[in-house]
Specification:
Length: about 170
């Protein structure tokens, strides 16, 4: 059973813990597209830009430990600033406890309040738990990129999902 769950907008003092959580999930090699974690400097720049731009970026802590995140970052392309991309992850040992759902609903609420019209994501087709989470929270499947990822000598399809408020 989990301890006290706290979800809040990411702060600059979360950078090191966020980096550790992100690295942990990346190093599992199963849930995120990256094969190795970005540098701490890249993570710092990402978080500080999200704070400055009021992007929907939230973290979850249990008993003080950062165990998950969700961020919805608007496109920088001038014709696509109405849309944003969702990224999220939960540290191993804390999944299937409602943390992802709580993070996602909080980040979505923030994103819609900022005037975004479209939120999209990509998820591995074999990640049925995540696909269910996204569907439950209003995302629809828009397509599948067949054999899109090759890792550990096998291919994975990537499902593209989105929701919009036009």
């Amino acid at each position: 059973m989990r301890g006290d769950l706290e979800i809040y907008a990411t702060r600059s003092e979360d950078i090191d813990d966020f980096y550790a959580a992100l690295s942990s999930v990346v190093n599992e090699g199963r849930f995120l597209l990256m094969s190795e974690p970005p540098s701490l400097e890249q993570v710092r720049a990402f978080i500080l830009a999200n704070i400055e731009n009021n992007s929907a970026q939230y973290v979850a802590r249990i008993d003080g430990r950062l165990v998950g995140w969700a961020d919805i970052v608007p496109s920088q392309r001038s014709t696509m600033t109405h849309g944003a991309r969702l990224g999220m992850g939960i540290v191993c040992g804390h999944r299937r406890q409602g943390i992802g759902s709580a993070l996602l609903s909080t980040a979505l609420s923030h994103a819609w309040q900022t005037g975004l019209k479209r939120i999209e994501l990509e998820v591995f087709a074999d990640n049925e738990v995540a696909i269910h989470l996204y569907k439950t929270n209003g995302f629809n499947i828009e397509g599948t990129k067949r054999f899109a990822r090759y890792s550990d000598e096998h291919y994975q399809d990537i499902v593209q999902m989105a929701q919009y408020r036009i």
